[in-house]
Write the structure tokens for this entry.
Amino acid sequence: MFTKKFLLVGSLLMGVILLLSSCGGSVPDSAKSRSRGVIESGGIAPAEELRVAEYLNYYEQHFAAPVNTALGLDLRLGNGRLPAEGGEAWLQVGIQARSEANEAIAPLNLALVIDCSGSMSAAEKMPYVKESLRVFLRSLASNDRVAIVTYSDRAELLVPPQQVGDGGWIESAVERLTTNGNTNLHAGMMLGLQVVEANFDVRRNNRVILLTDGIANNGVTDSGQIAADARAFNDRGIYLSTIGLGHDFNDALLSQLARQGKGGYHFIDSAAEMDKVFREEAAGLMQKVAEAVSVLLQPQAGVRVVSVTGFDGTPPAGPLNVQLHDMGTGDSQVVMVRLEVTPGRRGGRPLLDVTLRYRDLFAQKDESLDGQVTVDAGYITGYDPLWDLEVLRNVTIQRTAEGLREIARLYQARRYEEAWDLAFRLEQALRHVASLTGEAQMMQDADLMRTYQETLARWVQQETGRLPESSAPERPSRGREATPLPDEAPTIEIR
């Protein structure tokens, strides 16, 4: 019994059948579900919570599994051809971690830290937390060591560290979760970290998972102090993942805790999302595959990197080192790179060299994979830099996240009609690509943009006395733009 860390269970919460994303628990992905929850509740998604790379990595990718390496590198151009006179080009950089089937799985030394403050008593919170915990804990291996910490006004060790064994203790432990009081997040987090440290074992995956539905309002409440206290444990090899539940929590703090703790950061806005998150954490807990993951981009002469997913502003010229998240088994990450290419000769033309670098944690050595991106240059009419559907799909997702950030800025500037119009154009782009790819998720996102338009339309009517109207139904054209030495390459962090 309990011989595998991750089991696909046929019957999920509320009878929902769910397909797991290829992004496992190690890669933060909260920005997408967080914005969805805010929009569905009739609010405006804050720009600072819309981290573009995180939003994109919420979606399932389909990169080939690596062979004989911990990570695989997948390079795909938006169009394999380019006009000889140059122009725009898009490159998709995909990274895929090998699956757990190829791994020697390290047992866990895990503390689950659960917010049990009064606000967690809501019908849509604690009952679903309990059900998800039951499934999660029963998916662990018998030799995994688990502790459960609860916190409200103070922290309590509900279940001291013990091996999962036959799982007979799980039901009674979960049923002991009760709610009351305030949110002493710092006390709960610190107790969880201390419990894991007391049983630290280099042969185990030492980790804390912190769940909260509120902002720290008891004990230590300064975000800087909370993050600094966690960092001391992170530096000693204890990973930290965070889960936000509901709508009233400190997104910036949870994001920072997960980032410095080399763990996942997730937002839960529904029972189905809660189940998904706990299952992805189970998958990511199987084995940390690689750390210090980065992609070195070295443009050839006449090629300039114009933008990189999740990086604000114009990237530095020349070679560029893009820092990525650590990866667990089955994880994937994707980065979209927009290039500007000057005129050149016809025929095969190299655009840039790409090097994936990482630390293989199973082999305990540094590894790298090299690839060269070459395009066929010639005389082309009707050139479309986003002819490839997979690249078009991911660029559209990225532009949706960027557009949502812009909507938040327009709303803050009281430019409500412009915000509504942008939401309309995002909806049209999503529906267009969904019709090409047949992807249900993108159609759901288009419906979400329709909901956003209804919220923004109320603000337009309040400001102008009339409802907004689009000048014409817009059907986006595919590919139409909406608006040193390698070791010395500057490093950028994407979010």
